[in-house]
Amino acid sequence: MKWVSCPCWGTNDDENSGEVADRDPVLLVSGMGGSILHSKKKNSKSEIRVWVRLFLANLAFRQNLWSLYNPKTGYTEPLDEDIEISVPDDDHGLYAIDILDPSWFVKLCHLTEVYHFHDMIEMLVGCGYKKGTTLFGYGYDFRQSNRIDQLMLGLKKKLETAYKTSGERKVTIISHSMGGVMISCFMFLYPEVFSKYVGKWITIATPFQGAPGCINDSLLTGVQFVEGLESFFFVSRWTMHQLLVECPSIYEMMANPDFKWKKQPEIRVWRKKSEKDNDETSVELESFGLMESIDLFNDALKNNELSYGGNKIALPFNFSILEWASKTREILNKAQLPDGVSFYNIYGVAQDTPFDVCYGTETSPIGDLSEICQTMPEYTYVDGDGTVPAESAAAAQFKSVASVGVSGTHRGLLHDKRVFELIQQWLGVEPKKTKQKHSRTRKVADSDFSFLEKAFVNTIREIPIPSREVMEEANGDDDELRKNTTLQRRSSILLLLLLLVLISLSATTRVSASVDESGRRRVIEARSGQDLVWVVQLSDLHFSVHHPDRAIDFRNLLGPALSLINPSLVFITGDLTDGKSKDMLTMKQNEEEWLEYESVMQDVVKRSGLNKTLFYDLRGNHDNFGVPSLNSSVDFFSKYSINGKLARKDNINTITLETSERKHLFVGVDTTMSIGLRGPTNLFGHPTDELLTSLDSQLSQWDDDKPTKPVTKISFGHFPLSFSALTHSKKSLRDVFLKHSVSAYLCGHLHSRFGKNLKRLHRSGGVSLSDNDLFQLNMRRSGADESATNCSFGASPDAEFWEWEMGDWRKNRAVRIVAVDRGHVSYLDLDFKSSDSHKTIVLPTFPLDSRFMSTSLARHRYECQHMISSSYDAIRAIVFSQSLVVDVVARVYDSTPGFNNLVMEAPMRKHGSTSGASFYSLPWNYRAFEDSLPDRYWLQIEVTDIKGRSTLSELRPFSINGLSSRVSWTWNEFRVMGCQWAALYFPILWSVISCLLLAFFIPKCIIVVFKKQYTLKKFVAKKGLFTLVLWILQDLCRLPVVWFGYVAYLLYLIFFPWFSGEVFTDSGKRTYMTIMGWVVTTGERKHEYVGEPDVMVLVIPHLVFVVIPSLLIVCCFVAERELYKEHIRAVSGKKEDDHNDRGRKKRWQRRSVLFSKRRLVRKSLLLASLALYWKHFKNCWSLARAYEMNVVHFPGYSLVVPLLLLYVIFKTHKAP
To answer: Which residue intervals define the domain TMEM62 Ig-like in the entry (predicted)?
Structure first.
């Protein structure tokens, strides 16, 4: 049987079989990160590849490669002592340096980003070199020093093998990058061995004098081997940083201080300095030369640490490694080329290469130097290959036969045609003149081309153009060969023309802006060529000094994602920073977090390619913790946010996107407190009457334009309407939104932990919010869509709008895309924690999801034939993809006979695109899908890209008629979206207090006024719940200290301050809190209540979970004492009325287990008391941390209940 090989899996060794070529052997030596590394447990035979891998890369790297330097041995050793790191020597050493992730998936998809020496190996094999005879590879553990014994002895053994196997021919070494540094060390330490075995040395991109920019930044912030969205699947910059700090090889590539640089490399830092005489700060640019940089490294890395196995491990700048690296540099400076060895040098040019590194900016300076590790640098560039400056790579101290600069990137030189020509020339070989399969060449991963430009360049390289020799060797099949070649080239040229058109479109379809100077209107013209716009929403970023991963992921993921999605606008709806201490109890502004936010947003805007003015970031309650007023010293939002920097000072921001057919009005609303309190009593939005008037005006700005285009109105803000208070005149945001029939209100605040269906359809009619609408039991008001449609003249459906709360970035890395397609509003939520969430994104824009997007307005227009039929005549979708999309298929399922009953399947046609986004549609007979059931038909769209990857949209129901599917809230979803908490505060408060007061006054009134006594004896005689309750409460009245204590405490809670504390950030001023809010002093010494209903988060839990439970426990103690007393009487025979009643006596004996001397009931009550004490004092501790208080500041709140409970425990200890 003859097997046919698939090109996906590489070439067979037999392809290059034949006579051993009469040539010197070649040894390929890789550089930093250029070798496969395996990990295995000691005493175990199984190995896993930990470098390079594309799946679970970050996790495997942390678990296996994080290391510590051992100064006693000079080796860098894994943190897990049971792990061994090795380099596979398969395929004569070539396997480890060929394709760095040799998984079937990488080969199948031809992911050339990890093809390292692959193309060069194929070139050499094509020139007649045979693996294992004249072609060898040497991979090594690049974490170690370039002069460590393990590497030196391994290289010596490899040279001996190549020398002997080839018939004692001298070896030609071809080294790349740091491999040249290692060869220099070997040449110094083993000069006789080198002279004996080596005849030629060709080096590529070697940092002979160091790589200042890249190495300095690697030690301070790490290195990202791949950029863009691909970086999400690879080892993160921070993870790599923790390894590099402990790598001698990195220290050995620091800039050579003895080299005469044209300009000395520097590290620059914009520093924030505090003046000694006053509190003012200044900003200075500090420069650190080669020697001064050591102190900078030490200060910047002083707090660097990682967590491994539950332990914190400090990773400061390692002076032991620096000392070792200094000796290595001495060796490199002294190394000499032995006589008889020819040296050739290739180095990269024409690429911007980092040289000087700068951290911070003049507007966002660095405070403490340790902040550098979380800062993205700015570079000063010189000529080079993008990593190694040409000045360093060309400055070998050895006399070279040839030293050639080639235009190319650091890794790209290993695949460069010019480099291959030079190597063939210096080796004295040329490719065999035989027919060969076309071999794909690599597109360098570190290019900055856009998606379409990459596809264009790759397509050019894929055009199969036969060589002249091949054409000459063709015999009778010349005509057929020429015919096939012509067809291939024509098809390739057509593809190239298509890509050129797409590139030109992507260059011109970015949103362009114009400003309508009438009023405050800003208009942006969306030139997508469609009646379609889309925007991106993010919310609840919570950048925190205690959780740097939030900002790191935001920086690494969002910029490339926005570049792919290319939205018209980007909304960040609040909680930009966290403002919490590590224990999450103290909540106030932290300027470090705001500086980080500013820096990250600058980088995101730059990497996204979007104009900064397209970003709108709103203030959330966390951004307002402890801010006494706008433009105060702690109002960092105004100082560091994008809105603040662009002077968007108003609480209302409007912008209009305009297409040829429609206007899309977006209105942002900031309803945070005008006087920002510290948390937790800063939870609600507080719109004012003035703000609602302004909002009303902005939403109506296009209403009077005649003639006018249709206007779709969307509002965005931070707070859900269930967490928004009413104004002084009892108006609400909901009233204004309904008045103007906005399509949707986009918000955040609640995060994803309460559920996935945090959505609500608001309708006019019935009881309005202003009339104290307390509850909505389901996502849609019951009966809202059940009435018949009235199509009479002038009739219109009730006003309505959707409220869509979105998940948070804080824990869920959520991103939302909102699209408006011919007036139909849809959205898609992305989870950036998922590795596949943003390679290909499918957003169906019509038909709409009948669960979360359909409205009665759409139903009315459809049934009354008022809709625009052209907006119904096709299934439409937007596809965002990093790779070229080759197929988009729409499928419709009928769920009535069976969920998998496919009723329509057809390919969708592309009818437009912008950068990264393509528009697809499928004409259909929409009336065939009319049905009385809103969820009978379900839609799913499948997208296949050029790499064969398939992406499915979420299967979702639709209703052409505009009917709505029912989705019920869970309990958690209902209590945050269905309850109008601002309106519920006082009803709950006065209900609880009234019940408590009645519990004390009714039994007292019965005793004093009606002279009726309810006792245990009466309860035993009559029984009944009413008698039981009155007996216990009257017994409580007979403890005057307890009765008067509780009544006085309740009156105190109603009329007096609960406690005093600091509600502003570092103000030093105290104020006090009542059930009406915090009493603060504003201008002209005016006192006003702030934080109502926000204080309910303290008031209601204290009453419900402390006061009421304590009263119940007290009542139980009183009842237990009476029962115990009765038990003692029964046992002792002192009971007068029933001492001869044997049946009753037996019942008392059965109760003796509970009311004996052990008093098990009392002990249970004591445990309940301890639980209550723990709960109460935990709350007190949280309040003390939140508002910087001690017991002196809230004695009544903290001590009354515990003391009353303690008194009752004491009084009921013994029966009287």
So the answer is: 837-963
- List C-alpha distances in Å: 976 to 669, 765, 805, 942, 982: 20, 22, 11, 35, 12
How far is the C-alpha of 148 from the C-alpha of 792, rounded, in Å? 90
Supply 461's token pair: 């390289």
The phi, psi pair for 674, rounded to 5°, reads -70, -30
| Gyration radius from the chain CA atoms | 38
Residues whose CB is less than 8 angstroms from the CB of residue 286 and which lie 6 or more positions away in sequence, other chains included: 268, 269, 270, 271
- Stretch 894-917: mean pLDDT: 82
Which pair of tokens denotes residue 158? 């490899």
Q: DSSP label at 614?
A: G
Closest CA to 803 of 683, 966, 978: 978
Of 674, 720, 768, the residue nearest 1080 (C-alpha) = 674
Under 8 Å between Cβ of 465 and 489: yes
Both tokens assigned to 514: 């114009």
pLDDT one-digit tens code per residue, 853-863: 777 677 766 66
Angle, vertex CA 226, rays to CA 222 and CA 416, nearest 5: 120
β-partners of residue 657 are: 524, 664
Distance between CA 1096 and CA 567 in Å, rounded?
A: 40
DSSP per-residue codes, 1002-1018: HHHHHHHTS-----HHH
* Residue carrying structure tokens 């400056």: 389
Does the pLDDT at position 112 exceed 60? yes
Give strand ranges (E) for 166-266: 171-176, 198-204
- Whole-number Å distance between alpha carbons of 502 and 915: 8
Report which secondary-structure segment, H or E, holds 816. strand 814-821
**pLDDT attached to residue 1034:** 82
Main-chain dihedrals φ then ψ at residue 359, nearest 5 degrees: -120, 140
Cβ–Cβ < 8 Å for 143, 150:
no
Residue holding tokens 């729409």?
890
What is the spatial distance between Cα 785 and Cα 789, in angstroms, rounded to a whole number? Answer: 9
Does the pTM exceed 0.85? Answer: no
Q: At what angle do helices 1040-1055 and 1195-1211 cross, to 10 degrees?
A: 170
Which pLDDT does position 229 carry in this prediction? 46
pLDDT on residue 746: 95
Q: Which pairs with CB-CB distance under 8 Å and at least 24 residues apart come from 637-641?
A: 637/576, 637/594, 639/594, 640/364, 640/594, 640/595, 640/597, 640/598, 641/576, 641/597, 641/598, 641/617
CA–chain centroid gap for 470, Å, is 53
DSSP line for 1088-1155: EEE-TTTTHHHHHHHIIIIIHHHHHHHHHHHHHHHHHHHHHHHHHT--SSSTT-HHHHHHHHHTHHHH
pLDDT digits (tens, 9 = 90+) for 225-274: 665 445 556 788 888 888 999 999 999 999 999 999 999 999 999 998 87
Partner residues linked to 912 by β-bridges: 919
Contact 536, 555 (CB under 8 A): no
What are the backbone angles phi and psi of residue 656, rounded to the nearest 5°? Answer: -120, 125
> Do the beta carbons of residue 591 and residue 546 sit within 8 Å?
no
Angle at 462 between CA 459 and CA 467, to 5 degrees: 140
How many whole angstroms separate alpha carbon 588 and alpha carbon 1066? 8
Alpha-carbon distance of 172 to 978, in angstroms, equals: 76
Nearest to 225 by CA among 241, 202, 246: 241
Q: What are phi and psi of 716, to 5 degrees?
A: -140, 145
Count H helices, E strands: the chain?
36, 43
CB proximity list for 397: less than 8 A, separation 6 or greater: 208, 333, 335
Q: Kindly state the DSSP code that residue 554 receives in the 8-state scheme.
A: I
Through-space distance between the first and last CA atoms of the chain, rounded to whole angstroms:
104
Chain CA centroid to CA 1181, Å: 32
